[in-house]
Amino acid sequence: MPCFVNWFNLNGDYEVIGIHYLTESGFLTVSVLITNTNSVGTYPDSLIKWALKKNNSNTMINIETYDGYLNDINGSHVKEEEYGFEVLDDAKISDSVIQEGNVGSETGMISLGFKVGTAISSRKVDCINYMIEMLVQSNFGRKKQLIIAVIPDGEELLKN
């Protein structure tokens, strides 16, 4: 079932395959895949083959992210049909909406010098019976840039 969708890039240097379709249509009708920089070309083929096998749309959203600090990015461990099909099939039968935390592409993410993972947030808008959801894939900054409640906590953390 299609859902309304939009996206926002805070400060990134990455590729998103399918972002023009998403921006123009305003609808999401397929799975969103996030993979590392060196595997960004692997998933599109996998997603198209999987979608056609399921009689679905062949439009895709494939987001690239760099995880080379914590992952063997040059090892080419992501294989199209071995891994891509498995991930998509698991997502379709899962009871949860989105797997959060240290899973999939988030295994190698760092933000503000700390290990991070995928996060979601949702709010129900009662008056119009809508659910607004947000997926955050965070991968930016150094520890010294961490600021909480206008206190430069990152600099304090580096002293200790």
UniProtKB/TrEMBL annotation:
Transmembrane segments: none annotated. SUPFAM superfamilies: DmpA/ArgJ-like. GO terms for molecular function: aminopeptidase activity. It comes from the Eukaryota. InterPro entries: ArgJ-like_dom_sf, Peptidase_S58_DmpA. Belongs to the peptidase S58 family. This is Uncharacterized protein. It comes from Rotaria sordida.
